[in-house]
Amino acid sequence: MKKVLNNSKLYFLAVMLISISLLIPSITVYSAIDKGELIYNNESGSARGKVVDMDTNSVIPNAEISINELDICINTDENGEFSISGLPIGQYTWEVKAKGYGKTTFEAYPIGYLGATIFAFPVTKDKKGYYSKHEICESSYNDVETHKHEKNHKEKMDIPNYAVPQEPPVIPSTLKIYYNSQISSIALDTYLKNVVPNEINPLNPLYKNMTDAQKLNMLKAQAIAARSYAVYHYYKKDRHSGQGYDCCSGQHCQVYNPNVEYEISTQAVNETSKKILIYVKDSYNWIYEYVDAAFFASCKGQTKNSEDVWGGYLPYLRSTTCPYDIRPTYETNHGLGMCQDGAAGYALNNFSHMSILTHYYTGVKIIDGQY
Length: 371
Fold this sequence. Notes:
This protein is of the alpha+beta class. It contains 9 helices and 17 strands. It has helices at about 140-150, 155, 190-195, 195-200, 210-235, 265-270, 305-310, 340-350, 355-360; strands spanning about 5, 15-20, 45-55, 65, 70-75, 80-90, 90-95, 105-110, 115-125, 175-180, 180-185, 245-250, 275-280, 285-290, 295, 340, 365-370. A 5-stranded antiparallel β-sheet has the order 1-8-7-4-5, with no helix packed on it. A 4-stranded mixed β-sheet has the order 2-9-3-6.
């Protein structure tokens, strides 16, 4: 329990991580930054919550919330709620004020690792009128964020949608693959190293204008999608379980050829090892589902809804625009999930693999599974 300053009766009701990702040693943790300089990068998180009366539990609209280290000030809405995104990871001092209530300071409360952190800030009536004058923040965080977003929307979009669960989802260490009339047990990432370059060949002339870094982002997106697809169908057992294996080596599942492997696609698999997509249905009780991460070649600028193709509703397979499709007049396959030509276009325009995935798969989280 974190310490609440200035009022011994106040305490922190709830800090609950909805979704954060397993720690990666290379990530920098920010404890503070220069005032006025908001950082938008792949090490950002978000926070949302409400301010409530400690005695009645009623919400308090127009309460002022400040984050001292970031020089940020926002106000709760008519429901007493607030939401902030694009915050650097770290622990910050939060100050809460409201008309008729004392100023309450919550020390060293964290911004979760690349996910959303829920806060409930309780405050009590100030009988001495310590803070009786209410002020609206002169410059809300949303205004600052909008200005920064307009200045460089690509950096803002690259804030990923990572998650750290109460317990990481289990993924299979091996799959049974049917290839060349034989069934073989193959390690998951070994399998993917011979899938990714067959689904997106990095030597394809379509990608001749891409840098290696851009190709790597494209291939990372494909690697996570392919891993998610394989894990989903491993548990669903709806492909070839009746035939004694998990996936075939053709387009019916994912194209697999053990004779095709490239250094850059192998790098993409290695650097995303264990990462999959999940869809969180209930963050409080940590109820989630694996994602049927469908993908296809090209969509002519618009993907499709699952119910329009397969007849069943999946919340993460929603129709979305594909503005960077490198073959905008070409359309193939079912049109669900990630458009590979569109993913290439996003990478060519310097979007990260995380941005690519969260664009094509609505509402998903990118998470490290465990064997």
